[in-house]
Amino acid sequence: MESHYPFTLPPLPYAYDALEPELDGRLIHFHHDKHFAAYVDRLDRILAQAPAYQSWSLEQLCTDWPSLPCAIRQDVRNNAGGVYNHDLYFRTLHPLPVTSPGVALRAAIQRDFGGTPELKAAMRSAALAQFGSGWAWLTEDCDGRLAVCRTPNQDTPLPLQPLLGCDVWEHAYYLQYQDRRGDYFDAWWRLIDWPEISQRYEQYLSQRPHYPDP
Ligand SMILES: [Fe+2]
Predict the structure, then answer these.
(1) Which helix (H) or strand (E) holds 202?
(2) Is pLDDT above 50 for 214?
(3) Average pLDDT over residues 59-70
(4) What separation in Å is there between the alpha carbon of 213 and the centre of ligand 1?
(5) pTM of the model
């Protein structure tokens, strides 16, 4: 994904039907080529009319939108978040997923949740509890602690670093699962690309400043 304007839709990193039977090809086609593409197109159209902000990074647009002019503030919030969240979503799924986290992430999950089944239960509760459209997240804070949270609409968890996000907008599942959000969550969980998530976790760890012990 580009770091700033103009943004372009990243190609889907697998075939539309590669995630079947958990997520069928028609669902993925609409989600990626219509919904994700629409966020990218709208964000570019907004920024085309606001050249002062074309150098802002996607993360800066997601976090600093309150300082933007009123005329574009809410639209940037919605669409920059939509771009950021969907870029992460499609990159963290895999047709042939490795089903367990790497050593460092597994240890952190054990420390902060008691194990992967407990993490899954916490994320599932967050996904089901989100009222209306939004996301359930696994995040890492500045102390390296993992947490589960949820955000409404297309808000991101930034500045908490997102490791994994479950899209619970109806466009993410209704074509296949209708009102069975829990079944969609269970299917989505089976597709998680744990090596990718583990790599993100280790990357954040390595970027964190190290302070000497007092
Ligand atoms: Fe979505």
Answers:
(1) helix 194-207
(2) no
(3) 97
(4) 43
(5) 0.94
Q: How many CB atoms lie within 10 A of CB 117?
A: 10
The Å distance, Cα 13 to ligand 1 centre, comes to 16
CA 69 – ligand 1 centroid, Å: 26
74 C-alpha to center of ligand 1: Å? 18
With beta carbons less than 8 A apart as the criterion, state whether 81 and 153 touch.
yes
pLDDT in tens, 110-136: 999 999 999 999 999 999 999 999 999
Contact 154, 85 (CB under 8 A): yes
Structural domains for the chain: 25-91 (1.10.287.990), 103-207 (3.55.40.20)
